[in-house]
Specification:
The structure is a homodimer of 618-residue chains. In chain A, 40% of the residues lie in helices and 15% in strands. With 618 residues, chain A is α/β, with parallel strands linked by helices.
């Protein structure tokens, strides 16, 4: 293709042909990519703003480096849609996050160009350092490149990675993509610091090491050196301030305009030529190129389908477990001034925006830092405040030791609102909330509620805050209640329907609704089942065990990994339990489809029970 | 007491009388404290070097601040012995770490002067921020003071804490005690950076904010200001470099000579006057005042009893599970160049010093950074290297999410050598290794071995590295093997002794030895027991379940928290198991005494079984 022809995304041999394009052609290609991103995500939902911000960066990375020999590790993966498009997933891109389609995050088993699993924040530098170290041991002089958004820079693992990478003597390049926003407005000293660096126009640090290498590298050296030395402020800046990253052992290049492919390539080529740990600081605009997303990057961070011309969501948000929790917490905080609310960068996702507005002094967004969040709760609790940490189930995994050491050991009273508990659907394997019961129940003194509807959630939250002591987890699923039954009063213990059957169905949380429907299906097939819907699921109770022991067989359904599940605990004291749990990681897909596949739809529940009973009889 | 009299540690009203002392008296007192530290730890064992380094710092902190209204949070607690002496534990200090005595770490239930639990590294800033925030919400203008050694500064939680504290607008003071050594020689960019700061003699940063406050505070202001401005290099340094801590939002004071009480007090008073987040950088000498410890601070970090004049340990170290692992790993690595060894600041503790010496390129000490260690292993494993992470059971808790997300999800092959599994004894509640089986077994694809002697350990390690796939944990206790039986071949599965009894004892790891002795005791009482000693303990096996199901009753002993234990898992499939596990946190004390108290000595095992059988008969 000539350097003047308009490239066609769909006719290129990607990512290899990228290197053949002229800069103007790259810009044309980026426009096509951006259009594809907007069109696709408007239908599939997904992480739009971050990916719109990294179109040029991704193109530049694939022009400068040779994937898959050079290993690109995307942090979280929110930013990696363009990477997917450029590495073999162009034609399947319309299936993004859909049932049977490609993942919304990076997965090595999806493409050899996805060097490492992404999903949980801040792991990219550590993973890339492992890869770069392996390369060094093998005598391979390729590069490992970690691409991190500033949101992930608040995570302790990012720092641990930097701290080890800086002194490592490997070919690791960390690209820090600064866009002033992570998921919500970024917080903390690091964010403020990066914002200061951002505003230093033309601060292209000239370390002597960089210069030495550039002098020896005539082809790429001269223009790069010119760019780097071009700034009239460079010398002054170098005198005034060395960056935090240099303090940690990195060569620092930046900040670079992340929407200028030429400047990006110069910076990345300089980084590549150094053959030592380099941090490349790139400034981008989140949502770049799509008005509504540029205007409200937070709203377009993770979104459902939307209408392209206006940016309006296809489905208007109604109440959800998250918003009900958030509003109830406000009610409680109005009369109890010792309640504090904590989030790790998920103010909107967890429904804490109401609390943040009404009680700004008692609201704390700690950034992506789940470990700190819990230990901070421990400090608050030691002063008799009541910390309420609202967090997604999957991210709470990172706080395991802190819950044990900084809360449980001192018998602190703290409430953990475990959002997105159970199957989450499209976000997939890295985000399923199927381990929280398993790991929380290994910590002495923990109590766990799993309400199935809004009124139970409110009651559990009230009890957890006002009546319970120790660590209390209230867990609830993503999305809305689907109530199939009416309760006179919202129980925080259990609801038991005794028809005098010798078969009992036990479950909790969202599946309580499915169990009601399942028992109706079974009734229509002349199989009468009693029903026990748990709300307080841990610690296990003698009362529950006694109820269960009356039955010939107990069918116990739970959206939980099998080891550590509630049914496993009851199975240790009752020998009539047939457990239905989850025995491995769960892929991404449509939530109802996944629940059905796992055997948790009302139909499948009924089917399993019928099959079991038939097998027993034969 | 007059300002010229020699103070008597044992006659003072502590910590309050400290404020009445002149500086020369303080120095005299410090000598007395140091002597007490050396004498006591020479008998009790403990963390000597760190505490010898912080004698003056502790005295200065208690002179400048008012504990317990001001809250002092010691990180890890290695450095806190002087604090214990000065806050009500002088007379009980000889019981340090002993059965029934005071803890080697800080415990709020031991003293109101221990503001927060210490034991696991790097949590102090986050906890102190919680406390400082609570103070601010209550209108309390006291200070929360986190005291952190540079070893803990490699932990991500420390960074998350700093990142949030720096912008917090609270009265938090972080005292960073730099002694160039954490447990072993410190590693990473941060350590190098701190070492650079250390060498800036007279770098007392004069921020305008400090000056403004000091100008308004005549009593303490003037001398402090003089000290701060005294350095001729101050202005130059201020121009050349702002510190990383200022980048994160802190006022920075230091470095201060940590053995000069006058200088310490000036710095701390300045920090106190600022009423904003301040980082005070203190330089100390680890082991200060005791020749052998100054010379070999690493050896005197955590030690057993020793002879004071020479510093020689009372018991010469023999082989241990740790050293056997370390040597075996060297044997394996000699013929397999893809094996890498990783430690988080525990090179000697985990027995990896042999590997480090023989294979320096494949050895990685990542500092106190267990999360990074695991994700780094994930990176290595993705390149087909075989990472072996040797780590204490209790510290592995911090890697839960990384094991799940960065190893298990991609089915990586990695070996985790879980040292100090089970009861560890004197280090106590924060350090007992009783949760690893519980949390590791909640992660899909994990295999766990628990060898009971050296030859089994060697066999398990070989199998884990050469034959198994996925995540393989090999766990073994602190200390030496106490073998009570001889095996023809070292099994990696189980050893089964079938005498035809209808009673079976099942256990694994160290308790296998106790079970052999217990069965002998029972035999002498005419109770014949069969014996099943497991080595591969997870996943559970049908073969094992079948053996167990033949018995009338199975007594299952394990040094493991009850939820998540192996017996719990088998109880879900066998209904004849009487489990003996651990149902809460375990205090510190003598290891054998604790095992006996928990029912795991051979005598108690036998007793429990006899009691159970008697109860059954009546």
């Amino acid at each position: 293709m000539g350097s003047n022809n308009r490239p066609d995304l769909f006719k290129m041999n990607l990512p290899y042909d990228l290197k053949k394009l002229s800069l103007p052609q790259c810009d044309q290609l980026c426009k096509q990519i951006r259009k594809l991103l907007i069109t696709t995500v408007s239908k599939t939902g997904g992480h739009l703003s971050s990916s719109l911000g990294t179109v040029e960066l991704t193109v530049a990375v694939h022009r400068v480096f040779d994937s898959p020999q050079d290993k690109i590790v995307w942090d979280v993966g929110h930013q990696a849609y363009t990477h997917k498009i450029l590495t073999g997933r162009l034609n399947s891109f319309s299936t993004l996050r859909q049932e049977g389609g490609i993942s919304g995050f990076c997965r090595p088993d999806e493409s050899e160009h996805d060097a490492f699993v992404s999903g949980h924040s801040s792991n990219s530098v550590s993973a890339a350092l492992g890869i770069a170290t392996a390369m060094k041991l093998s005598g391979d002089d390729h590069h490992a490149i970690a691409i991190v958004g500033d949101g992930a820079s608040s995570g302790g693992l990012f720092y641990e990675g930097l701290n080890n990478a800086g002194k490592s003597n490997t070919n690791i390049i960390v690209i820090l993509n600064y866009n002033e926003m992570s998921i919500s407005k970024n917080v903390g000293g690091m964010a403020k610091y990066l914002s200061t660096l951002r505003t230093r126009e033309g601060y292209h640090k000239t370390k002597s090491a960089v210069e030495r290498v550039l002098d020896k590298t005539p082809v790429i050296g001269s223009p790069v050196k010119k760019v780097i030395k071009g700034s009239k402020d460079a010398f002054k800046n170098a005198l005034l301030h060395s960056t935090l990253f240099e303090d940690l052992g990195f060569a620092y290049i930046g900040p670079i305009d992340g929407h200028n492919i030429g400047e990006l390539e110069n910076g990345l080529n300089a980084a590549k030529a150094l053959n030592k740990p380099v941090l490349v600081h790139v400034n981008t605009v989140k949502g770049k190129g799509y008005g509504p997303a540029e205007k409200n990057p937070g709203e377009f961070h993770g979104i459902g389908s939307f209408e392209i011309t206006t940016g309006n969501p296809d489905v208007v948000a109604s109440d959800s477990f998250s918003s009900v929790m958030g509003k109830e917490l406000c009610d409680l905080a109005r009369t109890n001034e010792r309640i504090c609310a904590i989030t790790a960068a998920m103010k909107y996702g967890t429904g804490l925006q109401y609390f943040a507005k009404q009680f700004p002094d008692r609201f704390f967004d700690v950034g992506i830092a789940e470990e700190h969040a819990v230990t901070f709760c421990g400090g608050l609790a030691s002063m008799k405040y009541i910390p309420v940490f609202a967090v997604y189930s999957t991210f709470l995994q990172r706080s395991y030791d802190e819950i044990l050491h900084d809360l449980a050991l001192s018998r602190a009273h703290a409430v953990i609102c475990v959002d997105r508990a159970g199957i989450v659907g499209n976000d997939g394997e890295t985000h399923q909330g199927i381990f929280d019961i398993s790991f929380l129940s290994t910590i002495p003194g923990v109590r766990i509620y799993s309400p199935s509807n809004y009124s139970q959630l409110r009651a559990c939250l009230r009890k957890a805050i006002n009546d319970d002591d120790g660590i209390v987890a209230v867990r609830y699923p993503r999305g809305n209640e689907k109530n199939t039954f009416v309760e006179e009063t919202a129980s925080t213990t259990y609801s038991y329907t005794d028809h005098g059957s010798d078969i009992l169905i036990v479950t909790y949380g969202r599946l309580s609704n499915n169990a009601v429907t399942a028992s109706e299906i079974l009734a229509s097939h002349d199989i009468k089942c009693d029903l026990l819907r748990l709300v307080e699921i841990f610690p296990i109770s003698d009362e529950i065990a006694q109820i269960m022991s009356k039955y010939q067989v107990v069918f116990f359904f739970e959206e939980c990994y099998d080891y550590g599940s509630v049914s496993e605990k009851y199975s240790a004291v009752c020998d009539n339990i047939a457990p239905f749990t989850i025995d491995t990681f769960v892929r991404h897909g449509d939530c109802d489809t996944l629940l059905d596949e796992l055997g948790f739809s009302p139909e499948k529940m009924a089917e399993h029970i019928e099959e079991f009973l038939t097998d027993e009889q034969t």
